[in-house]
Design goal:
The complex is a heterodimer of chains A (314) and B (962). By secondary structure, chain A is α+β, with helices and mostly antiparallel strands. Helix content of chain A is 25%, strand content 25%. The longest helix of chain A has 20 residues. Chain A is globular and about 55 Å long. Chain A starts with 7 loop residues before the first strand and ends in a 26-residue tail after the last strand. The C terminus of chain A is likely disordered. Chain B has 962 residues and is an alpha+beta fold. Chain B is 29% helix and 20% strand. The termini of chain B are far apart. About 3% of the residues of chain B have low confidence. Chain B is built from 28 helices and 33 strands. In chain B, strand 27 and strand 28 form a beta hairpin. At the A-B interface, helix 1, helix 4 and helix 10 of A face strand 4, helix 6, helix 7, helix 11 and helix 22 of B.
């Protein structure tokens, strides 16, 4: 929709220029979706457009990935195909498409919306938050006067639509360490509707050849919750850790899932992930949930909506 | 270079905060639609340098230097024709240029497969699908989830998009949708799949919806925005517009001081006395969060919105009440307590009761005492929003002659005129109401929600004034389906006879009583009458609460009540160990049985014009059996440990016409070129009645539908038309069209006989000529001769909507439920319909598929949630999930073979009713699969899971710490 109160668009990446009534403009899909009056007490007056900065969307090095905040979701979605020769080395790349497909938004939105924008919106079900928190990525945050700090993506979102960014601070990029990309991973997601908004999204990562398990719960909780186990936990250990890490009030409560359901599904899919990663090597990522269901559910003559997204989609 | 639109540099700089959608529309590209303005519906899809985007989210400034392709330029872009006529030309020149460019392959496919109904989403669908490769086409669930359609149920859209794909990659469902019309006449007549006349306009984006009017048509157009109440119940103490009026562009602010005193109802019926007079254009008391408080009129939408936020309102808050139970409790605040029961037609204003019904047939208590099985349960249905893709909108202007001209998105233009005349005390000949093509209705546009306020402003200011609802206004401040709480008790004998049915019903009409009496009474009509049962007792109340008003919604109360009753029939059958379909066969009415609902005497004007309920049950049962065999044969009947499967069915009956009068007047005439013109009153909003009128007229005139041009929904065209609601488009207006066309056929033959000096019996009508004893007299020639002779070859037809017949629908589902997660998968969906003679099988199938899809939304996903303070929290489409392509199964559709003695050429209504049996059939299938009865809608996955958990049916559940 029109941002009717905006009178200025300037191209800048300088946090020092930020003042009340300003908003950073990346893809714009969130700003234009909610309108002038949805962002703070005063209506928006100026848009500070980041896209003129020319930041390289994705840099791939042996250290891992550096993803610019302005990298579009479509560019990220295209990455696994471009890195096809690395998929043996970096099996966790398989999470990228699973997470992109967790957007309730259309692929057309992905042509515009950005990785940074999704994280900064701070939604519990932000798929880029899920992906990058799950991969242990670090966010580089710029402040006025050249201030820089890094924060784990898992700690950028601190509540429903709340982030750790101060007014004027800017998410510059996120870095995914190669070590995480080398991990075996597992992914589970459930939604109340087919291909709908995630009600629970859990990513498991078996680090250091199975020496550690990192479990990242998103969508079910108001903010990402990360559990780290040395070695491989038992079902009981996992359960106790979840009980301790997620008090009842931390489960998200909105129309996209009853908190009790989210809690039980968090336990269920976390245990599935634990068991899957304990079972040893699997080819690629196994996913559950409504968009990649058991094959047996595809009935005869059934105009199934559930076709695995393939390379030819890209 | 500026923004290049369809090959031409627009030369216009957008505003800094403007989105591309409004920029493109400002440049005259009116095919770019607004469905949500928030990125969810995809109706605004365009290509930026060939990449599809939602233009409502795309910063227009970012489009500078880029090439934009809209629906109007798609064909030319594909053919590499550089320039398509841009906007700002006269509308007709624009239109011709676009149509001359031919069709893109995808447009042609949408036309060939009629992949649209109202067509409001079509431009976005086409623009999206035009970018697909075969991989994307193979996975439409994923790739079309950003394109919402509320009418079709997506089947026709999928067929259109994949039309060219080779067999094997895409196969139509096996038995699906066998359509066997009872009679097939010549092409273009009744029984033929005549395409919608507007098809080409729709796929090219030139069809004109309510606000698709070129800027030049309304010079000096102003925009109106409503200040809405933040309180659920309050008195307005003062309104200070000073700050608002200082905002540049703001022209006026209107408050209750400017509004007429006349009370009315936003609900529109043939008799305005059917609804309570409880509403003012602007009131000094607000009764729900979101009610109009003031209207700000400005030169631009932006200024009006800013103005609305600057209006200072002082409220005195009043106690509020949010549930019917609380509202009827002693001491509850009375929303309309100061109104007079008799003059306002409110049953008990002091107790918040708008209408009530108490009836008893036989002796239910005795029946319960003697019963072998009894089922007792409270069923609850939720608020549901129509979510037509086109929001409510209207433009009012006063013409040079001082006449009021209103263009509106309405199902009932003639009733809107009547209501405006009543509110503003105007003579009928001083008001004209027209609609463009309407972008979906579903009952939501059987209300006056925009017209009155733009008329007020236009009359005060003497300039044209427009109001367009936002999607959020649609979800928070228009109308919703009435929530029902139904305490039900039903009894049966061990032989399987239904012996007693008791219903205690409360409907929540919200803050205003629009449609409250009608919905309440109708809900207790056909839902009960379809079962023979000697003992029936009903107590029903429609109750005011401080919530968003409920209104007319597809099914008009039946869907809510049928959910309860059909669930109960299933429970009785289960308790008896009887097949639910057998139980229904034993107890449902058969042709000739009295249809008794709340009176011992049946409705005097409702008859079995035809009866196909028995056929419908057989068709569904057979299809479900075939489906079961398919799964078994494929080895897919066992889905693994957490999954259980089941089947469920439900039936429904509906009177083919609403009661208490429904009128239509139609004029048909021969045109100079030998084709025909039909002027009808009913609006076209995807219901397909335009096609039906053309087919009916063609059948009577021995011609073809493409030779009948239908003009419609303009109060200047005909005397009166009650409107397109209550499924009346075909059976009332269609009947008037048929009568007019039959009369015209008589006149044409008589005139031809006269000039050829032959017997009338020897004159036969063909498509474009009269054969007069072997001599061909072209109709064009006949027209000229008639004009010379001063003979008017035209005729009129009228129909008053009575007597009425009954139509039937039976729905069946096979579902799988994951007991570990609550996931529900529809394995098979079948509906059989008794629509009499099916005038247009493809269109009728579309109505049924669309009804199923909308009902799946209402059964599984949709709920307008109101919080403790009366505020609607589901205020955008991301939070109010309507079914996407991924959510809707491909349904098998079957027609009973009947021929109605009352409907036009044997036809019956089939627009609301496919919706009605869907929710209970799903609940019954889940019950069959899991053993658990779910009595509250929607049947969302979390609710299913928690219900199974309560019943101890979840395998290895997580147990919360004590």
């Amino acid at each position: 929709m029109d941002l009717t109160t905006v009178d200025t668009v300037i191209h800048t990446q300088d946090p020092a220029l930020f003042r009340p009534g300003d908003a950073w403009l990346a893809g714009g899909t969130v700003l234009f979706s909610y309108g002038s009056y949805a962002f703070g007490p005063a209506p928006l007056q100026r848009l500070l457009d980041l896209t003129g900065a020319g930041w390289t969307p994705i840099s791939v090095t042996d250290a891992g990935l550096e993803i610019a905040a302005t990298c579009t979701v479509a560019e990220l979605y295209a990455l696994p195909a471009l890195l096809a020769d690395r998929t043996q080395e970096w099996p966790a790349l398989s999470l990228i498409r699973a997470c992109c497909d967790s957007f309730v938004a259309s692929f057309k939105i992905w042509n515009v919306s950005t990785v940074g924008g999704n994280i900064c919106t701070g939604l519990p079900a932000g798929p880029m938050t899920s992906l990058l928190a799950g991969l242990g990525a670090q966010a580089l945050i710029l402040g006025p006067c050249g201030a820089r700090r890094t924060v784990p993506v898992a700690e950028v979102v601190i509540g429903d639509s709340r982030t750790c960014l101060a007014a004027g601070e800017l998410l510059r990029s996120v870095s995914v360490p190669a070590s995480a990309l080398m991990s075996r991973v597992a992914f589970r997601r459930l939604s109340l509707s087919n291909l709908g908004r995630s009600g629970v999204l859990v990513i498991g990562r078996s680090d250091d050849g199975g020496a550690a398990l990192v479990l990242t719960v998103t969508a079910a909780t108001k903010r990402p919750v990360q559990l780290r186990f040395a070695g491989h936990p038992t079902a009981g250990e996992l359960r106790s850790a979840l009980v301790e890490a997620i008090p009842a009030e931390l489960y998200h409560d909105d129309v996209h899932g009853h908190p009790d359901w989210r809690r039980d599904m968090t336990y269920r899919v976390s245990e599935e992930i634990r068991a899957e990663l304990e079972a040893g090597a699997t080819a690629g990522v196994t996913v559950s949930g409504d968009f990649w269901p058991p094959v047996a559910l595809q009935g005869p003559g059934d105009d199934t909506p559930w076709v695995l997204p393939t390379e030819k989609d890209a | 270079m500026g923004i290049v639109i369809n090959g031409r540099d627009s030369g216009v700089t957008p505003l800094p905060g403007q989105c591309l959608r409004t920029f493109l529309r400002d440049q005259g590209n009116l095919g770019v639609k607004k469905g949500c303005d928030g990125g969810d519906c995809g109706a605004c899809t365009v290509h930026v340098d060939g990449t599809p985007v939602h233009s409502c989210l795309y910063p227009a400034v970012r489009a500078e230097g880029r090439n934009i392709t809209t629906i109007e330029g798609l064909a030319a872009a594909a053919a590499s024709v550089p320039v398509v006529a841009p906007g700002f030309l006269a509308a007709s020149a624009d239109r011709d240029a676009v149509l001359d460019a031919g069709l893109h392959r995808v447009q042609q496919q949408f036309l060939d497969h009629q992949g649209f109904q109202c067509g409001f989403c079509t431009a976005g669908m086409v623009m999206t699908a035009a970018t697909f490769n075969d991989g994307q086409r193979a996975n439409l669930a994923r790739n079309l989830k950003g394109n919402l359609c509320r009418c079709t149920g997506y089947r026709a859209i999928g067929d259109a998009i994949r039309a060219h794909m080779p067999q094997g990659e895409y196969v139509d469902t096996e038995a699906g949708s066998e359509v066997q019309p009872a009679v097939v006449l010549d092409r273009g007549q009744v029984g033929d799949d005549v395409p919608a006349p507007a098809g080409r306009d729709i796929v090219t984006g030139v069809a004109r919806y309510s606000l698709d009017v070129p800027a030049g048509e309304y010079p000096g157009l102003l925009h109106l925005t409503l200040v809405r109440s933040p309180h659920a119940h309050a008195e307005i103490v003062a309104v200070d517009a000073t700050a608002a009026l200082q905002i540049p562009g703001v022209v006026a602010v209107f408050t209750h001081h400017d509004a007429p005193e006349q009370l009315f109802s936003t609900a529109q019926h043939e008799l305005f006395t059917d609804d309570p007079d409880d509403t003012r254009v602007l009131d000094n008391v607000v009764r729900f969060v979101g009610q109009r408080v003031a209207a700000v009129v400005a030169e631009t939408v932006g200024a009006a919105v800013q103005g609305a936020r600057a209006v200072r309102v002082e409220y005195r808050e009043l106690p509020a009440v949010f549930t019917p139970a609380a509202a009827v409790a002693p001491g509850a605040p009375a929303l309309h307590g100061t109104k007079d029961s008799l003059t306002a037609r409110i049953a008990h204003p002091e107790r918040n009761i708008v209408a009530e019904l108490h009836s008893a047939v036989g002796d239910v208590e005795a029946a319960f005492a003697d019963a072998d099985v009894v089922h007792e349960r409270t069923y609850q249905t939720q608020r549901v929003q129509h979510t037509a893709l086109e929001t409510h909108a209207a433009i009012a202007t006063v013409d040079g002659a001082g006449r009021l001209q209103v263009r509106t998105s309405s199902q009932v233009p003639f009733l809107v005129r009547r209501t405006l005349c009543r509110i503003f005390d105007l003579p009928q000949d001083q008001v004209r109401v027209v609609t463009g093509r309407v972008g979906g209705g579903f009952g939501g546009k059987q209300e006056v929600l925009t017209e009155d306020i733009v008329v007020l402003a236009a009359m005060k200011l003497g300039r044209p004034v427009q109001l367009e609802f936002t999607r959020t206004e649609q979800l928070t401040a228009s109308t919703v389906r009435h929530p029902f709480t139904i305490r039900l008790k039903a009894a049966a004998s061990s032989a399987g006879d239904l012996t007693g049915l008791l219903l205690d019903v409360q409907t929540d009409t919200g803050a205003y009583g629009n449609h409250a009496p009608g919905v309440m009474f109708h809900s207790c009509g056909e839902s009960l009458a379809v079962y023979k049962c000697a003992n029936k007792k009903v107590d029903a109340q429609a109750v005011y609460t401080n919530s968003i008003p409920s209104g007319a919604f597809r099914g008009y109360g039946l869907s809510q009540m049928i959910f309860a009753i059909e669930s109960a029939m299933d429970e009785l059958a289960a308790a008896l160990g009887m097949d639910p379909l057998e139980f229904r066969r034993r107890n449902m009415v058969r042709e000739g049985d009295d249809m008794v609902s709340t009176h011992a005497e049946p409705e005097p004007d409702v008859h079995y014009g035809s009866y196909g309920l028995d056929q419908c049950l057989d068709l569904v049962q057979d299809a479900l059996e075939r489906g079961g065999k398919r799964y078994r044969d494929a080895g897919l009947d066992d889905l693994g440990p957490p999954w259980v499967t089941g089947i469920g069915t439900a039936l429904s009956m509906i009177d083919t016409v609403p009661p208490r009068g429904h009128f239509a007047h139609v004029k048909v005439r021969l045109l100079p070129d030998g084709t025909f013109g039909a002027d009808v009153g009913t609006a076209e909003f995807g219901n397909g009645t335009t096609t039906v009128h053309a087919q009916l007229a063609a059948s009577a005139l021995g011609s073809t539908a493409d030779r009948v041009a239908v003009r419609q929904s303009d109060t200047e065209l005909v005397e009166h038309d009650t409107g397109a609601f209550g499924s009346a488009g075909t059976v009332v207006a269609g009947k008037a069209t048929l009568a007019a066309a039959q009369e015209l056929a008589v006149r044409i033959r008589a005139f031809a006989a006269g000039i050829r000096q032959v017997q009338v019996a020897g004159c036969l009508l063909t498509a474009d000529a009269v054969m007069c004893e072997g001599t061909r007299v072209p109709l064009a020639e006949l027209f000229a001769a008639a004009r010379t002779a001063g003979v008017d070859l035209s005729a009129e037809g009228r129909w008053g909507g009575t007597p009425r017949s009954v139509a039937f629908n039976v729905q069946g589902f096979r579902v799988a439920v994951n007991r570990a997660t609550g996931e529900l998968k529809i394995l098979q969906s079948v509906q059989a319909a008794d629509a009499g003679v099916v005038i247009n099988p493809r269109q009728c199938r579309g109505q049924i598929e669309g009804g199923i899809a909308q009902a799946i939304g209402a059964a599984l996903y949709e709920e307008v949630v109101v919080d403790d303070a009366g505020r609607v929290t589901t205020d955008i489409l991301r939070h109010y999930h309507i079914p996407t392509y991924a959510d809707v199964p491909r349904s098998e559709v079957y027609f009973a073979q009947t021929d109605d003695t009352m409907g036009p050429l044997g036809a019956k209504s089939m627009s609301e009713s496919p919706f009605n049996p869907v929710a209970p059939a799903l609940a019954n299938a889940i019950r069959n699969a899991t053993g658990v009865r779910f009595a509250q809608l929607p049947l969302s996955r979390d609710r299913i899971y928690l219900g199974l958990l309560d019943a101890g049916l979840v395998p290895e559940p997580y147990e919360a710490e004590a």
